[in-house]
Here is the input.
Amino acid sequence: MFRRASHQETGLTPRWYHAVIDAYVSNSVTEQILDAAIDHADQHGLEAITFRVVAGLVGISHSQMYQHFADKDALLAAMFSRVVGSLFTDIASTEYDPSEDPATHAASTLRSVALAARALFRQHPSIVTALTISDGIRPDFQEPLLVVVELFERIGIPQSDLATYYQALEDYTIGSSLYAFFEHPRHLQLRRERIAALGHEAFESIASNEETIDAHNERAFELGIDALIQVILQRAGLLGPATPTNLDSSAK
Here is the structure.
């Protein structure tokens, strides 16, 4: 069981001891608020976030929320930063080993970035959707994107093509994820209804339940990102036009 050390044990004067404890408790509550707010938004949507609701989840009063965040916008900004900060966790190292096949390195890195961004939409659909379509530039959201730009430069993508290839990856990764998760938590139900409405036997098994729809969505996304990466690497001269299995074997 956790026991708080006394000020004699810490060697701090009573004044500094209580200041340190107060700061620790404040930071701990702030983290609890963020955890509760993000979890609630993931389940019920960003519009369900209010100071009163989050305070109730954490077990503090509505007025105590203002000790940690000036207003709802400040809370949302902190939620955005926390979520975006986790993007790097799932991105593979981009350190380049000269002995490694350039196509293998490029494919695995680009795939890691795309799948990490996709996972972020899956884990925090309302938050990431709002962040993606919001006005303004967020520096913390730009850093993962620079990984792609730096990789393109390293593998020799011409400057004249770099912006186009980057845009293709961004449009596919972000655009398809927005489409897939935009109506969360009803996104799977709506996708199932659209597929079932086609009335084609090839789609019957896919539309049988939301789990199969979800699995189908992810398989389709991976198929698309692998195909796009292959085209980019072919244009860069790292893959021959008749070697589609090169990418498949390197990306799995």
Residues 14-44 form the longest helix (31 residues). Confidence is low (pLDDT under 50) at residues 1-12, 16-25, 244-252. Residues 30 and 139 are 22 Å apart (CA to CA). The chain has two domains: 7-69, 86-251.
